[in-house]
Amino acid sequence: MTADAVVIGAGIVGAACADALSTVGLRVAVVESRVIGGGATAAGMGHIVVMDDSEAQFALTHYSQQLWRTLSPEMPAELEWDPSGTLWVAADEEEMQAVAHKHAYYVARGVNVEVLDAAQLADAEPNLRRGLHGALLIPGDSVVYAPCAAAWLLARAQLRRASLLADRVISIGRHSVHLTTGDRIESPNIILASGAWARELLPAIPVRPRKGHLAITARYPGFLRRQLVELGYLKSAHGHDTESVAFNLQPRTTGQLLIGSSRQYDVTHTSIDAPFLARMLRRAIHFMPALEHLRVIRAWTGFRAATPDSLPLIGPAPGREGLWLATGHEGLGITTSLATGRLIADAIAGRTPAIPPEPYLPARFPQ
Amino acid sequence: MPANFEVVIVGAGPAGLAAASAAVERSRRVLLIDDNPAPGGQIWRGEGRQPPRGVETWLETQVLGPLRPGLLMADRAGVPAQISYEKLILATGARERFLPFPGWTLPSVMGAGGLQALVKGGLAIEGKRVVVAGTGPLLLAVAAYLAKRNARILLVAEQAPRQRVLRFTANLWRQPAKLAQAFSMGRYLALKYRTGLWPVSAHGNGKLEEILLSNSRRLACDYLSCGFGLVPNSELAALLGCRIATGEVLVDEFQRTTRERIWCAGEPTGIGGAELSIIEGRIAGYAATGDRHSATSLFTARMRASRFPREMDSAFSLRPELRRLVHPGTIICRCEDVRFSQLTSHTTWRAMKLHTRCGMGPCQGRVCGPAVEFLLGCAPEGARPPLYPATVSQLALDRQ
Predict the structure, then answer these.
(1) CA-based diameter of chain B, in Å?
(2) How far A316 CA sits from the closest chain B CA (Å)?
(3) CA distance A219 to A302
(4) If you count Cβ atoms within 10 Å of the first and of the last residue's Cβ in chain B, which end, N or C, has fewer?
């Protein structure tokens, strides 16, 4: 068969690519052998968050967040869209200075933010421990249930003639992909969006799997209002230590709490590392002692696609005509999926993108 | 600090008790764990069975999952515990399969074993009108128990056709003990026992008032207790990485799983009833303590005992009509309020789970999983820790 574009992988990024490519009039084929949104998309928190780690990261997250917000009125209920906002929690005076710095950064870029002092923070989230110094509130951040979001984006693309093939790509040729069934899809554009699994098809890609653990509790409505993240999270997420944990707690619309987060390089097995999970939970209790008595009903793991500079790979694969990369989103894949889809579609359609695409081009890494 | 044992046995039902009595012949450090307040398992619940002498027994203890190889995380009556083992025997038993039909979520519609357990726990059943429905000899056992507690058993509805049930009872002569059992129950309830009959729906305003049967008759009752066969509890084995095929833990002739130092006996290796479970338990207990001779001497007995479950399986297999009881709006997953119509567009358990939340609640799919497997043919895959809801502080290994 033939297609104007083949998307490999139906996680949130692949689904967003299919949605954007079908919008510019391309006939898209999506190849996914497993569940839609069943990889890192299912394992993550679905936090749609603006970040200021670098100008490039801010531009991508901010742009993508606006795209999510624009879509939100159309979302079906099962996407559990929740504009609950984020509180970046400062544990000491030094982190409070970081709050002030971030505040200035976001205000200068037109993002609505607010500084909370210790008393205001205690008032906003009474279950946090006493003695914290304050927080930065970003009211525009939100949460989405990502597997259903991926399925919805894909369904939109299917309304614009996109097709979904339940098959696995075994190799990428020049302007074609080969499937396990023996079939071949001819296409001038092939988009590799298989997250941490992109290495199976492109071994030289600078992407490393980075394992994470998450736990979810039973329902405790009203226990938590906003997503809480310790400022130290940035060090955990964007540093490259072999192992790290950070306090990251999310309220779900069901009343459940999602407890994160952890990062491990060089681990390939999917099973729970109970002592490491324990370390992550102790970090959560350290910030929120009242968590101690809540019941966890399930814990699981997943693999982020991490790059050396913590920015995703979005754009043409160097030296491979017609092959485009859309992976390497690490822990921000849900947030930045929509912007990724737009950047890829704009590049293929020859349109001017809304943000400069250069910082994300795969060619920035030596081949 | 972990408690150290040579042999740890999870489950104090027939298989676990038998494993303990075999293991204790050679080992002084045997621990028997059960999550119930008394040993005996589902089948001997409340019968005052005692663990063998020399075996340490922890009751009201739930194993939450593995912590490291050779180390289990547990909740011992609300107190976190770590249990270290050299050999582990899984005797985790089985649970009832419940099949959904319109009205099954009404109060007073429950599992057959569930109602029995409530009555054992003090529920007043005297004079109440009870219908027991589903399949298998367990229905009679439950009905007999409830009748002894002066419940008014209106009907025992067995879904299997009459010919298959008759052939099964005719074969019982090879198992004299079973024959005696069948007759003592049969006399009691013979008049109420109907084959080829099953509940189609349950009705009532806020509580059960009447049921509709497959013969189009309506029957007013206070309780409907249903059991559609048994499902192996293989979740702990799955978490430990033992290989499982069609829901059953794979074992070799010594009841050894595919994982080093882990044995499995009784229902998790395939539904076989108490007699087979006891023999398997003894083999596992001997094999785990290095007594291959005693283990081997039980192989013939095991073979003989495994005929009965095979015959039972074919006699009481579920009829396809039971798949057609659900309506599009019938709730399948009670924890997350997932209805049948939400599931039918998906083809795997994982897709159903991710896209509808089916099986994502506190029971982790233990109830809806076997129902979905029967209705739609996709079985739950693997298991996720903790095996039972556990506090954050327990899983954080605080002060342990």
Answers:
(1) 61
(2) 32
(3) 23
(4) N
Task: Report the C-alpha gap between A14 and A12 in whole angstroms.
Answer: 6
Answer whether B354 sits within 8 Å of A37, measured CB to CB.
yes
Which among B63, B355, B367, B388 is the top mutation candidate for probing chain A, defined by the most A β-carbons within 10 Å of its own β-carbon? Answer: B355
Which positions ≥6 away from A247 have C-beta within 8 Å?
A89, A228, A229, A230, A232, A233, A283, A284, A286, A287, A288
H helix or E strand, kind and range, residue B81: strand B79-90
- Residue B310 φ/ψ region, left for φ over 0, alpha for ψ in the -120 to 50 degree band, beta for the rest: alpha
Write out the two tokens for A230. 């310790």
Phi, psi of A79 (to 5 degrees): -80, -10
Is the Cβ of A249 closer than 8 Å to some Cβ of chain B? no
State the amino acid at position B23 in one-letter form.
Answer: A
**Exposed (0-12), middle (13-18) or buried (19+): which is B324, by Cβ within 10 Å?**
exposed
| Cβ contacts from A onto B, under 8 A | 95
Q: Say if residues B265 and B250 touch (Cβ distance below 8 Å).
A: no
What is the C-alpha separation between B263 and B285, in angstroms, rounded?
Answer: 9
| Residue A63 to residue A56: CA distance in whole angstroms | 11
What is the domain class of A85-139+208-306 according to CATH? alpha beta
CB contact set of A35 (below 8 Å; sequence gap of 6+) = A42, A147, B348, B350, B351, B354, B355
Residue with tokens 């979810």: A216
Interchain CB contact of A268 with B (< 8 Å): no
Residue B6 near residue B85, CB atoms below 8 Å: yes
Residues of B in contact with A272 (CB under 8 A): 65, 384-385
Is B83 touching A (CB cutoff 8 A)?
Answer: no
- pLDDT of chain A along its 367 residues, tens only? 999 999 999 999 999 999 999 999 999 999 999 999 999 999 999 999 999 999 999 999 999 999 999 999 999 999 999 999 999 999 999 999 999 999 999 999 999 999 999 999 999 999 999 999 999 999 999 999 999 999 999 999 999 999 999 999 999 999 999 999 999 999 999 999 999 999 999 999 999 999 999 999 999 999 999 999 999 877 777 777 889 999 999 999 999 999 999 999 988 899 999 999 999 999 999 999 999 999 999 999 999 999 999 999 999 999 999 999 999 999 999 999 999 999 999 999 999 999 999 999 999 998 6
Neighbouring CB atoms inside 10 A of B371's CB total 22
Query: What is the rounded distance in angstroms from the CA atom of residue A15 to the CA atom of residue B303?
Result: 54
Query: Which of A192, A201, A151 has the alpha carbon at shortest distance from A327?
Result: A192
CA distances, B197 to each of B30, B298, B318 (Å): 46, 39, 12
Fold of A5-49+146-207+309-364: FAD/NAD(P)-binding domain (3.50.50)
Residue A360 CA to residue A327 CA, distance in Å, equals 10
3-class secondary-structure state, position A99? helix
pTM for the full predicted model: 0.93
Closest CA to A300 of A209, A217, A214, A211: A214
Rounded Cα–Cα distance for residues B233 and A65 (Å) = 45
CA B399 – CA A20 distance, rounded (Å)? 51
Q: What residues does A212 pair with on adjacent strands? A: A302
Q: Do A147 and B355 touch (CB under 8 A)?
A: yes
Both tokens of residue A101?
Answer: 């710095």
Q: Which residues of B touch A259 (CB under 8 A)?
A: 392
* A36–B351 C-beta distance less than 8 A: yes
- ipTM value of the model? 0.93
| Cross-chain Cβ contact B392/A36 below 8 Å | no
The span from the CA of A331 to the CA of A329, in Å, is 6
What gap in Å lies between CA A114 and CA A87, rounded to an integer?
Answer: 10
Q: Choosing among A33, A144, A295, A301, which should be mutated to test the B contact, i.e. which has the most B CBs within 10 A?
A: A295
In chain A, where the domains are located:
5-49+146-207+309-364, 85-139+208-306
